[in-house]
Amino acid sequence: MPALVLLGAQWGDEGKGKATDLLGGSVDYVVRYQGGNNAGHTVVVGDQKYALHLLPSGILSPGCTPVIGNGVVVDPSVLLSELSGLNERGVDTSKLLISGNAHIITPYNVTVDKVTERFLGKRKIGTTGRGIGPTYADKINRVGIRVQDLYDESILTQKVEAALDVKNQMLTKLYNRRAIAVGQVVEELLGYADKLAPYVADTVLVLNEALEQDKVVLFEGGQGTLLDIDHGTYPFVTSSNPTAGGACTGAGVGPTKISRVIGILKAYTTRVGAGPFPTELFDEDGEALRRIGGERGVTTGRDRRCGWFDAVIARYATRVNGLTDFFLTKLDVLTGWEQIPVCVAYEIDGKRVEELPYSQTDFHHAKPVYEMLPGWNEDISKAKSFSDLPKNAQAYVKALEEMSGAPISAIGVGPGRTETIEINSFL
Ligand code: GDP
Ligand code: IMO
Ligand code: MG
């Protein structure tokens, strides 16, 4: 059973970095398949904490080959500084492979992201400002720059010219900004070519050959199901497919190769940026979840919006991803509440609705229907097996599993690698 997908089941920041790192020691490849440095994946190893943005979390496992797939958008300056930051901390990054077909986030994509948000005003998405949306837009418009273009100056120049043609009109005439010079962009991009060259590879071939040899490949999603461009809360989403199908297109591996799809699920819910969030809390409970859970963005430093667990969303994630398992994270954060509300359904315009409505208007009107589950006060951070958990914590996990539609195969009780209860083995 060689290929597994590990992805966010909510709005991102579920603990994908920790879960990937936990499996990293037992897999041969860890592959990012979408998104870019909008992601912030935290890995805690002993007393060392790492925040990874573009690099797959497998980079911290010496036996594992980290791969940036064709579906990822790569900001070369961020990538190089992430690599040198890890090298300074003694991490060997020499095994990294980057797809030659991955698209490059150019400086003008970052500019367009920022001006677009500014002009949207009240209606802004709250993007990370990293140029993600505009880079994917260029890809779809067929004016994107790919990693392989760095190795042909003439083609690169033609492509940058084509991309800037319309953008400069827009920047100068609509947004009142200065035009961006083609030569300057080309020079900057060429400056990355030699530094990236050792890593660039035909990753589709590498991964498929690895799978043929029964090597274990783990696909690490960025963002989360509800931020998916097709299946998320559009337009308040990111511009890629974090859902399971994205692993196939974003890495060039067929769906028949994937045997396990693991949804990372926080024991409550968080969201960064704008958009609907039915269980969001604006009271001291929300404040407490933020404080105890350390809910501050790894990439932008923004406070995360916090709310209770939403089983409607979890069921939806099971369906659109074909989840085989859940990895429930941050159960320890819920210690100390007398009762814990869990959203089991929505009330929309007076009607009870069990499944996520496809209509944006309905979702905006969704009010959570809560069931109260009894809480616990015991410290659970040292629990090693399910039976070590207090009865009420066990019941909370079982209730979530029942409502969410897939077995909970691991439980996080702290940020560290070892602070995990493994119930069913993933490998
Ligand atoms: P990602 O983007 O999905 O990788 O998640 P982030 O790294 O953005 O946010 C998850 C945060 O929760 C990080 O600070 C992790 O160190 C932390 N974390 C992960 N799992 C657990 C857990 O089970 N318990 C606690 N207390 N913290 C956790
Ligand atoms: P990880 O991988 C949480 C959100 C942004 C914004 C929306 C669009 O750490 O879970 P973008 O810059 O992608 O165009 O912004 O998506 N967003 C995330 N929220 N975790 C992330 O990544 C996110 N990446 C993007 O806040 O609402
Ligand atoms: Mg994150």
Automatic annotation (TrEMBL):
Instruction: Indicate the residues that form the catalytic site.
Output: 13 (proton acceptor), 41 (proton donor), 139
Enumerate the GO terms in the molecular function aspect. Answer: adenylosuccinate synthase activity
Q: Decide whether keyword Iron is in the record.
A: no
Where is this chain's protein located in or outside the cell? Answer: Cytoplasm
**Pfam family of this protein, just one?**
Adenylsucc_synt
What the entry lists under InterPro entries is as follows: Adenylosuccin_syn_GTP-bd, Adenylosuccin_syn_Lys_AS, Adenylosuccinate_synth_dom1, Adenylosuccinate_synth_dom2, Adenylosuccinate_synth_dom3, Adenylosuccinate_synthetase, P-loop_NTPase
Annotated pathway, please?
Purine metabolism; AMP biosynthesis via de novo pathway; AMP from IMP: step 1/2
Q: How is the cofactor bound?
A: Binds 1 Mg(2+) ion per subunit.
Where is GTP annotated to bind? 12-18, 40-42, 304, 330-332, 412-414
Enzyme Commission number, as recorded: 6.3.4.4
Q: Which PANTHER family match?
A: ADENYLOSUCCINATE SYNTHETASE
User: What does the UniProt function comment say about this protein?
Assistant: Plays an important role in the de novo pathway of purine nucleotide biosynthesis. Catalyzes the first committed step in the biosynthesis of AMP from IMP.
The protein, known as: Adenylosuccinate synthetase
> Which organism does this record belong to?
Streptomyces thermodiastaticus
Q: Upper lineage ranks?
A: Bacteria, Bacillati, Actinomycetota, Actinomycetes, Kitasatosporales
Q: Which gene encodes it?
A: purA
